Every structure is written in structure tokens, then in C-alpha cells.
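Reopening this one. Same input as before:
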Amino acid sequence: MHCPFCKNPDSRVVDSRTTDDGLSIRRRRECPQCGKRFSTVETASLTVMKRNGVAEPFSREKVMSGVRKACQGRPVSDDDLAVLAHKVEEAIRASGVAEINATDIGLAILPPLRELDEIAYLRFASVYQNFQNLDDFQGAISDLRAERDSTGAGS
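Same output, byte for byte:
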């Protein structure tokens, strides 16, 4: 780690703590050359393998952007989308993998989106699961109704 003050390529870790969310480590460092202290934050990288073979870092913004289209005209706020993206990232990280297929991210989006808004869920699922006809929609609607009836929830 280079010192941000004098650019010395060495530093000493003085203190390490996990962040409140537990997903990263905050390290307090000291430069042996200039004596100044600075902080770094380390997180485990999460790589997404796209269908075309390209690898890119996981992005909550991309999750929010993709889901935002399905939520157009629905009573879903940007804060709701941020919470959903956080839940998706937590679910992926909990799986313990460092590399995930884009398809698996779509699968991870479906459950929290279903809880957030059933109509947005149907819109997203129709594209993501490649619904071909009305029977596909009817099957998804039947599943939603059956789950609602079994839990006694009403929306």
C-alpha cells in the first residue's frame, strides 16, 4: 500500500476492524517514512461472468438499474431498490463464491423483488425467464396466488 502523502511503497498496519456491515475491513496504517497515518478499506471482490464470457465486478447500481425498469409506474422508491440490491449482494456473498454467473444474479433478484412488488416481479420474471405466451404468465400468477393463500398475506 503506497502512502497517499509521500508515495512510499511501504506502510504498517496499526489497527484493523470490520465495518458495521461486516463485509469489509477498515485498516489504520502508518507510513514508516513520513510518519503520517491513513485508512484503507478492504473488501472481497465479487466477479460477475456475463453470458458472452466477459468478467466484470459486481455492481449494485446495475442491479438497481435492471430492476428499476420492471418497477416503472409502480410505488417503488430508489431507497426500496437500494435495499433490494443490498439483499441481492448479501445473498450472493453468503453463498461463498467469488465469481458468479449473471444468470444467478437474476435468480437472486427474484425473491426480494417478489416481496417488494408482485407486478414488478412478474415484469422482471417475464423477461428474465423468457415467458413465451399467456400460459407462462398464468403459471407465474398462479404461483403468486398459491403462496399468498398459504401464508395468509394479502396485497
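So the earlier flakiness isn't reproducible anymore. For the record, The beta strands are 12-18, 24-30, 37-43, 47-49, 55-57, 99-101.
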